Amino acid sequence: MPKITEVKPVTIDNIHEIIPAYINEKQIIITSYEDMMEIVLQMIKEHHVFNMDRELLRSIMEDLTYMYCPGDDINKERLILQLAPSDDEDDEDDDEDEDDDDDIPQIKVDTLVSDIED
Fold first, then answer.
1. Displacement of CA 38 from its chain's centroid (Å)
2. What is the pTM of this model?
3. CB-based contacts of 44: which residues, under 8 Å, 6+ apart?
């Protein structure tokens, strides 16, 4: 087992510098998301530690892949799907609107009429 004495942290604050510098240093050509996955795997093998949520890491990887290869429709589609509102979000908005109606007290017309007559 290799002895790991030093790790290189990759954080939200420096990821936009670390990955492109690595790609430039190694002179790697990015054409697909799979290429970007290989880079991250290689970086981890070389003791880089990605200190962030994996969903966020994937999102950043998709952005970088598109930056390096914007002419590829698959890379563009990945970003469009990521940026477009999902059906779940629309359903949540509808549910919130319906819940707002529950907070408004309902007044019965009969009550108003009887109060006026008294």
1. 20
2. 0.69
3. 50
- Distance, CA of 31 to CA of 68 (rounded, Å): 7
Tokens coding 11: 């954080």
**How long, in residues, is the chain?**
118
Task: Give the integer Cα–Cα distance in Å for 58 and 18.
Answer: 15
Q: SS3 for 106? A: coil
Record the tokens describing residue 97, joined without a space. Answer: 């609107």
Q: Give the side-chain half-sphere CA count within 13 A for 23.
A: 20
Distance, in Å, from the CA atom of 69 to the CA atom of 58, rounded to the nearest integer, reads 16
Can you say how many angstroms the Cα of residue 113 is from the centroid of all Cα atoms in its chain?
A: 55
Which 8-state DSSP code applies to residue 100? H
Q: CA 46 to CA 54: how far, in whole Å?
A: 19
Q: What is the pLDDT of residues 76-97, one digit of tens each?
A: 998 998 889 877 655 665 555 5
